[in-house]
Amino acid sequence: MNGEKKEKEQPMAEYDNTNRGAVFSPRDTTKMVLQGKINLEGNDRDVIVVSDTTQAGQKIMKLYQKVGAMFTNDKGDNENRPDFSGNIDDYATNKDMRVSGWTKEKDGKKWLSLSVEEKRGVAPLPNVNQLDDEIPF
Prior knowledge:
Elements: E1 20-23, E2 31-40, E3 43-53, E4 59-65, E5 68-72, E6 84-88, E7 97-106, E8 109-118
Antiparallel strand pairs: 1-8, 2-3, 3-4, 5-6, 6-7, 7-8
């Protein structure tokens, strides 16, 4: 201690990954084996079945639901534009959402950084039934 003040350790701020994600190449044990539709509470959903093995060596079949689709973007002169973008079928929040993806590489491995946001749009037109059409004279 020798007269030195010991600094109090501050807790690390937690990283906020809301509306963000990343996807990587599948593990060697992961394989898409089936695709189709499932009806949940009257709503048809696209699904895939992925065969995998747990760390304990047990075979497992995982069911994944489609949440959206992305298409290749023409970046033109803007290198900051996402490489891919598309719509999210957002059942949880019932918002009109978009997903964007940027191709990245680290240690020779490619991956995709994802970002989700509400669609930006044009302001809605006023309701003609609510306009004040009275002539002031």
